[in-house]
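Self-study notes.
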Amino acid sequence: MPDHLPVFRYPDSWGAPRNPLSHSLTDVSLRWGERVGLPDAPPHGLHAMGRDLNMGAYAGWIHPLTGNTQLLHLSSDFALWITVLDDALERLGPTLKVKERLELADACAEFFAGPPDSVHPVLTDYVRGYRDLKARARDMMPSTRHGLWQDRLHYELTACNRVSLTEEPLAAEEWKGLDFYAKIRPFTPGVLPFMPLLEIADDCFIPRTAWDDPRLRKLEENACLLFGMFNDVASLEKDDTGGPAPNVVLMHQHETDCALPDSIDAVAQWHNTLVDETEQCTAGLLASHREQPSVERYVHSVQHLVAGIANWHLHAPRYGALIRTRAILVPAPGLPATPPR
């Protein structure tokens, strides 16, 4: 058993303090959620869930350098919207048959591309919010960027939703291996759809040539997988129901029959190796697009997002107290006595 807390490491250049413009955004987003008719979130309601999530802090951590306050508001609202939707689908998924999951995934894909006038009943309460978010995002970018940007958003929302509905439940039905985890986890935490917001936040709209480069997709998916590993350490209490679960710590523990702290340590080592691999992937991507400065800015934005989300975990009431007893994040700013909203 490790005699130390496992260390999840990022390069110093990935880290940045929370954006000071993001304070008070959680309350702003909760009022927005009420205006657009987001449903209450079990078990204690929308406001309790939102304060536990602290989506204003989330926006501030993943966009640490932007001076665009409208984008910070948008990102905080989007974090609330997507979390309420994801939580609802996560509760619903296990009650559906395989065919029903596929049908709902198809309905969600149509919804994300529109939404159309008529949507699946499960999605009705999310239409106003989604239309508002997309309209505000379009207003923050040149019209020449609308097409590719929306294509990216629709692809990433659809990919995440389809995996969450159709593949992730398989890991709750029987124990799956770590290769299965590495394949699905980039798409299940709901982080990938925030990548297009980075382009607005840091004025780094990526050209089609970079979007078509598989190394950019690899960078984004690795970023989400890194988040997933850290998030799974924070989510152990929720995920450990005594049976199969799509949680990397529990999957490793089941596969190796080792103690929980040893599994966390092994996950931290995998995480840190993946950070190194991501740095190598990034170097190749930048070398191929050295004449496109927006690609370099975007890469730095993704790095800030990865480290920022990890730091948000330490501060969010939803996760912070627990994960600080199980792992160390390096680098990590000091924790205030009372985390600001």
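Second protein, same conventions, sequence then structure:
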Amino acid sequence: MEKNLQLITEPEKLMAWLDNNDLLLTLYEKEAKVLLGYLEGHDYAIGVVDKKMVRVDICDENYEYEDYTIDEFIDTVCEWNYDLMIGAKRSMENASNNITFNEAKEYFEQLRADEKVLDKMFAKTCYGKQLKDVCAKMTQDMISKIDDKVKDTDHGQRAVR
């Protein structure tokens, strides 16, 4: 492991690092806990090298890492959650007995609870903000097209009268 690599494994430390180094995004303790839990479950960790956030492969004995932003961490964890939800739903659909079904359902419900937390985090990211802007523009474009059709229809009806 590189000697200046510092792993962030506790929600409070992640929150503090973000408060001190990322002016655009803050996390609540529950959000940080969910984020770190998914990373640990996928054998990754958040680290810091020379004041830059990195994603660390904790399965690799050398702790290989790459530059990664908090936005990228959140986006990746959202994808993992979605994939796990699909798997849990399949497990429910293919359960051979009630015990297996109930276990899969309980897991799915936990993933849904995580999804709600992750959705709030995602909305804070640059990706979430871009998505919101695109949706707003699409909505405005559709409203404009509907308005144009209504105006065309109004003119046509007046001419007939």
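Instructor comment on the second fold: The chain is about 70% helix and 10% strand.
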